[in-house]
Amino acid sequence: MKNLNRKVAYVLGLTFFSVLQSCTNDADVADVESAEESVLAISDAFPEELHNCGYVDGNWSSTAFLSNSIGTASETNFMQTQNSKIASVWGRPAVPLSFVKDNVNPNSTYNAISYGSGKIYYGEAIYNAAKAQGQIANVMILAHEFAHQLQFTYGYPSKNETTARAGELEADGMAGYYLRRPNGYNKTSFSEIAAAYEFAESIGDNNTSSPGHHGRSYQRRSAVRLGFLLGAYDLDAASFDYNFFYYYNGVLNGTYKQEKSEFFNPELDKYIRSYTKELERIKNGEMTDEEYFELD
Ligand SMILES: [Zn+2]
């Protein structure tokens, strides 16, 4: 009897230990992955697995489910094509893009999440809201989410800012870059991009409880603009990361002089510096909305 009790206690102990393990072990992704397929409320358990950003706030509801399609077949094709194109502009393989729907509580899918395990989940509600603004808003959001994949892969942002927003600023910049690139979304006029960005940020803000995400951010506006300007040149991810922070921190803040790296380009430097005053005014909140939305 005594022995048996001890054995039961041992087995229970093992079970308890393994439960603890599966709850705390980050490497135990297989279990999480299979759980995600049916129920998507996993972001609380593995916060480090995903990147919360200005457009999203962590959780999918318990009635949400994954889908391979969004809208019509041609809309699905559009989003998957953009997903591949964004990755290709950065010289990377695409990550799987899935859509999240919730028939019980449709508004719960006002989310787009980039996961450290290499995938993007895109909510139907945020898709529909962005689509009403024009598909460029969905492209903006998707390009921003893929930027987080680049950050996961390469350990960007390379520059530590005092603000935790460095990653968001860079992702906004990368989205602005993609929208301009001729082999990307090929938008040569900034005004359309600015409108899409403001909209993308605003629908995210409605859904976030994080104080850091409220209100308009002039810093983020200037990041999108800088990314767009950098899009006049063909940069890879490393070069973008270097140049983005070279100008965003080093030049605009003027607080320190950064080393010129192999990614420094005198021609690009001349071009970006011709916009320094303008970027400073955006970043400092000194440019009116009217002027900002009419930038070339
Ligand atoms: Zn983000």
Give a quick rundown of the structure:
With 296 residues, this protein is α+β, with helices and mostly antiparallel strands.
Structure, described:
The chain has one domain. The longest helix has 23 residues. A five-stranded mixed β-sheet has the order 1-4-5-3-2. With 296 residues, the protein is α+β, with helices and mostly antiparallel strands. Helix 6 packs across helix 8 and helix 8 packs across helix 9. The termini are far apart. It is globular and about 50 Å long. The structure holds zinc ion. Zinc ion (ZN) binds next to helix 5 and helix 6. Keywords: Lipoprotein, Signal.
Helix proportion of residues, in percent?
40-55%
| Structural class by secondary-structure content | alpha+beta
- Rounded mean pLDDT is 78
Overall number of structural domains:
1
Largest sheet: 5 strands, mixed
Q: In order across it, which strands form the biggest sheet?
A: 1-4-5-3-2
Over the alpha carbons, how many angstroms does the gyration radius reach? 22 Å
Rough outline: globular
Ends distance: 83 Å
